[in-house]
Amino acid sequence: MASLPCNARIQLTDTLEQMQQGALMRKVKSKSWKKQRYFKLQDDCMTIWYQSKRTGKTESAFSISDVETVREGHQSEVLQSLAEEFPPERCFTIVFYGRRGNLDLIAGSAEEAQCWVQGLRQLIEVATSMDQRERIDQWIRDWFQKADKNKDGRMNFKEVQRLLKMMNVDMNEDHALRLFQAADKSESGTLEGEEFVLFYKALTEREEVLSLFQAFSEDGKKLTLLELVDFLRQEQLEDEGTEELAMELIDKYEPSETARARHALSADGFLMYLCSPEGSIFNPRHQVLWQDMTQPLCHYFISSSHNTYLIEDQIRGQSSIEGYIRALKRGCRCLEVDCWDGPNGEPMVYHGHTFTSKIPFREVVSTLGKYAFQASDYPVILSLENHCSMEQQEVLAQQLRDILGEQLLTATVDGRVPTQLPSPEELKHKILLKGKKIGRLEDVLDGPGDEAPDVSDDDNGAEAEEERRRMKKDKESLAQALSDCVVYCKSVSFRGFQEARSHSRPSEISSLAEAKARKLIRDAGNDFVRHNAWQLTRIYPSGMRTDSSNYSPQEMWNAGCQIVALNFQTAGTEMDLCDGLFSQNGRCGYVLKPPFMRDEGTLFNPGEPSTREGPGPVTLTIQVISGQQLPKVANSKDGAIIDPLVRVEIHGVPADQAHQETKYIENNGFNPRWDETLQFQLHVPELALVRFVVEDYDKTSRNDFVGQFTLAFANIKPGYRHIHLLSKDGTSIPPSSLFVHIRIAETPGPEQD
To answer: Which residue among 351, 651, 683, 724 is the active-site one?
Structure first.
């Protein structure tokens, strides 16, 4: 075989052959920036490169595994702005994972556009359904493509040395040559196809996994079914249905048919299992929907975004529908929209008194209607910042009702005054508007509720008077039609916990800036936790954060705040924590709070961990064993090889906040070995998130970020586990991983007399 062929799963259709011949299309960045580029699918059917028509040099390439989806027609703002000039059947948009910008393209004809849309969709389907073994083969193909400089389908020793540097391997020349010659079976002085696969396998041999395998295997060559069961019970702490699990793992991951038939696992199969979802640190049972979804809304943490329409900074950034699509696809369930009067009676969305661009409100609403329930069935809360005149407020209400129809919740679920908030389950596929409302919910429904809050006679008159005054003020500034769209999320000013307890309703919600929330947590932590057990609270970033930076959501979650709004467009630790918390429970955007935060009489105060009811603290012991194929640092000078270290951070109540790191390993991003043990004590494990960060050590300046993975402590699986690292953007960077051993033990308390 002269070169690594197309993926075996891919049927080479006419469409794909046509894509391999290439096509001239227009790449569009704005109404005025439309340039011809030559696009071509590579022979491996998994890479597309394009070059400038003028210079003929390859401008860029991307892998099919980077592509999330393909949209047909005018489905981006740029293509919409060119609707007059180019018909929708010639236009399509390639959407990438993470925060990478979309690629808007205009084909020469409708047939050509169809060819690329259908072909790309076919390839995306293959890329997303590849199993572990196929993925490894694909990585090998990708490396071969990158290193085969003269594209002759074979690789000489010089090209192999270049490849090693690209792969973050600093290997002495003699050792590299030995591996090269051992793989060059044909003794041609070059590696072709299968020979390159042998070379890659020799390069990626894992001694630490082999010695673990041999510790449980009597003959050192295979694990029998019973030996595998021993390993699963003793090390992985799998206690239920272990024999069935062992059989399943052999069937799924053992490459040799003979071994499979004998119910045995080879060293290759063992490694495949450890690198698979079952061998991951993230408990697979918690990745699916596993929590009770029938509790009141205020008993959940809710994935929430701030100024969702911005995809850059807060002052001159671009407002875009893309902001809403990206947030919803990530499972975000509370979106923000700032509305201002626009021309021709059309309300617009943008950040007021700044230079951010504007989008029509109706476009935001239709995007919401289309994407709201693609990633999750559970309710979406639309937080409305309303700066419109009465006339345009009528338009807002009209557009919400017309475009969303049945999806918009306009009445209570049972037609009665709620004594508590409904559950995510009861509100499935519903969009709730959060905003100001004229009067109270019971004024709209028949008569007062069963349990209107008690008000003594002395208070009664004064309170009724205050209520009338407020209603009159609201009626002057709020259109009735818009007020009627607000049911369970009536925005009210926060006037203290006592005031809220005696006069507020479960269907009312206060919004607090981060500094105000921090002060309340400091001064009245327990009151705040109790308040959040029966009413929703929304927290938003300080107005000073014009660069769209974020505050730590953890301290707000510690107090039970549900709607902790972050700038989703800004990567960093804060968004890692958000993605980490919400990556569980089917990524549905709702995570149930621990029991001691759902009880209105709770004694819990995040500042005093001993107030938590439940078993004592736990000890988390993490042995950081090794790293695999860590990526290079983006924009590193001359492609330098990294000096990686691992930092483990605990984010939780103040008493649990901690971090420890390993030493750094010089010049090895390919297979560094640390073998270091880190230990943490957690007083409130139910609220803790664990963040694993890999950095490139630099003694003269700040370390560079390499990759990270964050998850809730509750989702950790003990034993020997791989941690599959994510990029700054939260997208996966296969095959980069860490190999660790995890133990969780209850910390022995003081001796009882």
So the answer is: 351
